[in-house]
Specification:
Radius of gyration: 18 Å
Strand content: under 5%
Number of helices: 12
Keywords: Cell membrane, Membrane, Transmembrane, Transmembrane helix, Transport
Subcellular location: Cell membrane
Number of strands: 0
Largest sheet: none
Pfam family, one: AzlC
Order of helices and strands: HHHHHHHHHHHH
Number of domains: 2
Membrane topology: Multi-pass membrane protein
Structural class: mainly alpha
GO cellular component, one term: plasma membrane
Length: about 230
């Protein structure tokens, strides 16, 4: 029974890895279009390894924003990975040395989601889901980022191919399952309205920071996550 469970977990991890890695093509092309070279683009994927943060960074740079705004926006979005570590800590312990550093690097939306989707009474399945997804996404994302960066200078405007919409689609896919409750919907709506209002009158990156601030303030005092309906 345990063998079947682990096989199913690995299949789920591989499916998520393939689907997520495909977005690397869009990131690579958009990054080069924003003014970064191939090596800078690959370094972002290798070292930052957080799709939302990377898209935010090149988006601000591409819009002519100040590098400080790009870094701040990227960092704001990346803070969520630290909170994922809190939820995963009981599953991954004990862990030291290089394994701990490697786990920190691959603690992302997808590895966390696949790990915590496994039965709580099956820690082996949760650890398998985490490692297979994290490493799978890491390899796929970096490899396809390189392909996208190499193609970026040859395909012209990424918007002509619809690659500019891939970033928004990726964000929506991550956020949508979390909007099942009225409070989450209200916070998302308020953040969107504020960001849209600030876009014409503030430097690039500021609307995202302001929207993130709204979400943080709205969630202050409500640390307990709402139950997800079955």
């Amino acid at each position: 029974m345990a063998r079947v469970s682990l096989d199913a977990t690995r299949q789920q991890a591989l499916s998520v890895s393939l689907a997520t890695g495909a977005y690397g093509l869009s990131f690579g092309a958009l990054s080069v279009a924003a003014g970064l070279d191939v090596w800078q683009t690959c370094a972002l994927s290798l070292l930052v390894f957080s799709g939302g943060s990377q898209f935010a960074f090149v988006g601000v740079i591409g819009a002519g924003g100040h590098p400080f705004s790009a870094v701040a926006t990227s960092t704001f979005l990346g803070l969520r990975n630290g909170f994922y570590g809190v939820g995963l800590a009981p599953v991954m312990r004990p862990m030291r040395g290089w394994r701990r550093a490697a786990a920190a690097q691959v603690t992302i939306d997808e590895s966390t989601a696949v790990a915590l989707a496994q039965p709580a009474e099956d820690p082996d399945a949760r650890r398998t889901g985490f490692w297979w997804t994290g490493i799978g996404v890491f390899l796929g994302w970096n490899a396809i980022t390189l392909v996208g960066a190499l193609l970026g200078s040859r395909i012209g405007d990424p918007a002509d191919w619809g690659l500019d919409a891939a970033a928004a689609a990726a964000f929506l896919a991550l956020v949508w399952p979390r909007l099942a409750h009225r409070r989450a919907q209200a916070v998302a709506a308020a953040s969107c309205v504020l960001a849209l209002a600030l876009t014409p009158i503030t430097p690039a990156g500021v609307p995202v920071l302001a929207a993130a601030a709204v979400a943080i303030v709205a969630g202050w005092g409500h640390p307990r996550a709402e139950e997800v309906p079955e």
